[in-house]
Amino acid sequence: MHDFYQHIYEQQLAVLEMPSNKKICGWAIRILDVLFPERNSGNMKSVDDVKLAFEQFELELEQLLSKSKACQSCNHSDVAHKFFERIPQLYELMCWDADALMDGDPAAQNKREVVRTYPGFFAICIFRIANELHRLGVPLIPRILTEHAHSKTGIDIHPGATIGHHLHIDHGTGLVVGETCTIGNYVKLYQGVTLGALSVDKVFSNVKRHPTIGDHVIIYSGATILGGETQIGHHSVIGGNVWLTSSVEPYTTVYHQATSKFIDSKPIS
Fold first, then answer.
1. Sheet of 182-183, strands arranged across
2. Could you say which residues of the chain have pLDDT below 70?
3. Which of 25, 33, 163, 243 is 20 to 30 A away from residue 211, measured at CA?
């Protein structure tokens, strides 16, 4: 057993220092709580309170980046400042996503309900934050954030994906969006949709492996669309359980034809 304990001890010494996932995710969730007071009970008494909150969030991000030690040569202060310069644009995108859910789901009664209860809204908000950090070259933290959303909602969106505005994720459980996927504007995705790669071979790590989805596309539950060269033309509808590895033209509707068997189960007299 000594060799085993020695091995574990050496692993402990070798691991890079990193703030806990709980601390990293808590930082992102507190930002959402301020951006969307519907998530909590708003407790800001003045504009200065809001300003102070975001200044504190920026300082916390700088500390998270510094303590992660994942990038020794990075200017963490500069990265944190650039991220918070983009917060108004990220907020606008999140509001448009909430509008897409309100407009596209007959069951949605008001924005408070969407913000407070819809897993698709939570997942896309966390993605927006993670994606911005990913674009700024921050390692690991973006993936920790989106995997947190994955664990809470069942919605798995890689922070490297490119997603336009007004994304509507209905239900969402089991949805997978790969790293190099591109999704246009006003797209609606249902639960169980996979936008994945044709191959998971490591040699393809630096090439586009996931599909491109045009504007105003609807993809129903259980559909699987694979491959970096696969393009779904704008205003197309992909039916439930469709399996696609090739492109479709704009304004195309694709349905999966299932065969149902009916068996007479009446008792034999």
1. 162-163, 182-183, 212-213, 231-232
2. 42, 69-71, 269
3. 25
